[in-house]
Write the structure tokens for this entry.
Amino acid sequence: AAETFKKGHLNQAINLMHGKKFETWLGSIINPGERFYLNAANKDILNELIARTASIGYESFIEAAFIAIEGTEVMPEMPLAAFKKEPGSFTVVDVTNAGEAGPIFKHAIHIPLAELRENTGRVPLGKPVVVHCAGGYRSAAGSSILAAALGRNTVVYDLGEAVNEFK
């Protein structure tokens, strides 16, 4: 779950939750042939994710699959009150797909989630970054991608389901 990931995860991890679109996002974010590690909270979920990875032909790209409940990397809690008061003091990254409902934030940088890893350089480092999507699932993955890519240079927040307060 997104909240579990935020409380502690492995360095450079991407948060692809094992919801019904796991393999869709795995195939969209991880390039064919790219080696990756697969981590889950327990054996049953890990076996399910391995099977779902195989369903898109990515099983041979798994470097290792293992169980780990937490890690040392923490994502900071979204400062929602500060964001509501002064949204312009944040860089907003919209990871929705082209053609979805109009922009929620006019000053947002639009980079669809499937293209985010290749376009992290488009995100300026001068302000804290807030990642959003239409409902909260993709922003969990997007914020983890940006946090891994931007390292300690910029704080990255996941707006998550709070995006619904701005629609």
Notes: The mean pLDDT is 88. The beta strands are 36-40, 62-67, 91-94, 109-110, 129-132, 156-158. Residues 137-150 form the longest helix (14 residues). Residues 11 and 127 are 22 Å apart (CA to CA).
